[in-house]
Design brief:
Blueprint lengths: L1 H10 L5 H8 L3 H4 L1 H23 L2 H19 L5 H30 L4 H30 L1 H23 L16 H4 L23 H4 L3 H17 L5 H7 L4 H26 L3 H21 L4 H30 L4 H29 L2 H24 L1
Helix pairs in contact: 1-6, 1-7, 4-6, 4-16, 5-6, 5-8, 6-7, 6-16, 7-8, 7-13, 7-15, 11-15, 11-16, 11-17, 12-13, 13-14, 13-15, 14-15, 14-17, 15-16, 15-17, 16-17
């Protein structure tokens, strides 16, 4: 789900901005509104999706979402009007409420009790691996066969590979297979065969350390964490503008595709490293993800003389992108503990989706009015602000 579905929907979206907007005869910012629609529908769907995950089978909800996403990508290859992409963005947003925002927190919380930072990092790193694999492929398909075949190829991959695997292999809980979550001691809760359905919070398997949800919402630090999540997600959408920025500086589409792939390499390595770091020191995780990302944007701004500087900046920016999922989840756990983590993080996830909704179109409109360099400067300032917010939240 994270490698293919999320990798294709998010990590590869930017490579289509220039060719599709040119074919439709609209500005890049106007075409990019479809990503905002996607984030908005995810935001609106999250509270409903969370209740559905608790009541219904996650296995079949994720399978159905994957099928709908694949069919949507397939249909995008036949679109001729920009409003059709807005409709598709709304449908994709509904599926991503399940496949992105609820997939890794729900399943990792159900299946793992220890080393959660590393496990979240591994799961989230898959979206970067997907970007590394699919961005060059998409660039080659667009160059040789056109953007329509690119979208249709994405849909076929999802429908033929991912959707059947989810239906066949995914299980809702360890107890479905007579197992305990990774790291759980049988003496704590008895035999796995005697466990009833365990909810996503794993309340039967975790201690009561941490802050109650009712108390958390009254604390200023709760809203600081929400602001951190909102800003980090907004900054991550700058990734959509990097391929166009590269081609604007007289590099080829293939080099732009390579740059997008290198961003995903930074995302992949960053997520694995941040998961490992956060299991040991959350302050270090906040510092690395924000300052590495800011450095990457500065290199992109001032390193346009050669492709290797561009690739270096892209790789470092990928670490900020990595922090959206891994660092936000681990900062929330660090500040509020395990007690009501899932409920608290569901609210933080709404901030993530809202940040993407506003920023993906907002950056495009600002770039159309000024330049791509301007939005990179603003992004750098925002990352420094995220560094300050994260450190304050941990110390508070």
């Amino acid at each position: 789900m994270m490698g293919v579905n999320v990798g294709l929907a998010f990590s590869c979206a930017g490579i289509y901005y220039k060719p599709v907007s040119a074919a439709l005869g609209v500005p890049v910012g106007e075409f990019g509104i479809y990503m905002s629609v996607m984030y908005i529908t995810s935001t609106l769907m999250l509270s409903v999706a969370g209740n559905m995950i608790e009541k219904w089978s996650a296995r079949w909800l994720f399978t159905a979402s994957s099928f709908i996403m694949g069919a949507t990508f397939l249909s995008m290859g036949f679109f001729n009007q920009v409003w059709e992409f807005y409709v598709a963005g709304g449908i994709l947003g509904i599926t991503l409420a399940f496949l992105l925002y609820l997939s890794y927190p729900t399943l990792v919380n159900r299946w793992f009790q220890t080393k959660m930072g590393l496990m979240i990092g591994i799961c989230c790193a898959a979206s970067g691996i997907g970007g590394m694999l699919f961005n060059p492929m998409a660039g080659w398909i667009i160059t040789n066969y056109g953007w329509r075949w690119g979208y249709m190829s994405f849909g076929i991959i999802i429908l033929v590979i991912v959707t059947p695997l989810l239906a066949l292999l995914l299980r809702n809980h360890p107890a479905d297979k007579g197992l305990l979550p990774y790291g759980a001691e049988p003496s704590e809760i008895g035999s796995a065969k005697n466990i009833d359905k365990i909810d996503g919070n794993q309340k039967a398997l975790t201690n009561d350390s941490g802050i109650k949800f009712s108390n958390a919402v009254k604390m200023p630090v709760f809203y600081v964490v929400i602001l951190f999540a909102f800003m980090m997600m907004g900054i991550s959408t700058l990734n959509l503008f990097i391929p166009g920025y590269v081609t604007d500086h007289h590099f080829s589409l293939e080099e732009a595709s390579l740059t997008a792939a290198v961003v995903m390499a930074g995302v992949t390595i960053g997520k694995l490293a941040l998961g490992w770091v956060n299991d040991r020191n959350c302050t270090a995780g906040v510092t690395i993800t924000t300052l590495a990302g800011a450095s990457g944007l500065l290199i992109l701004l001032f390193g346009t003389s050669g492709i290797y500087l561009i690739l270096t900046g892209a790789f470092l920016f990928g670490w900020a992108y990595a922090g959206v999922t891994v660092q936000t989840a681990m900062l929330t756990r660090k500040v509020f503990g395990q007690r009501d983590y899932s409920r608290i993080f569901s609210i933080v996830s709404i901030a993530l989706a809202a940040g993407g909704a506003l920023a993906s179109a907002g950056w495009g409109l600002l770039a159309d009015a000024t330049s791509t360099a301007t939005i990179f400067i603003v992004g750098t300032i925002c990352l420094i602000g995220c560094f300050a917010l994260g450190i304050w939240a941990i110390r508070k």
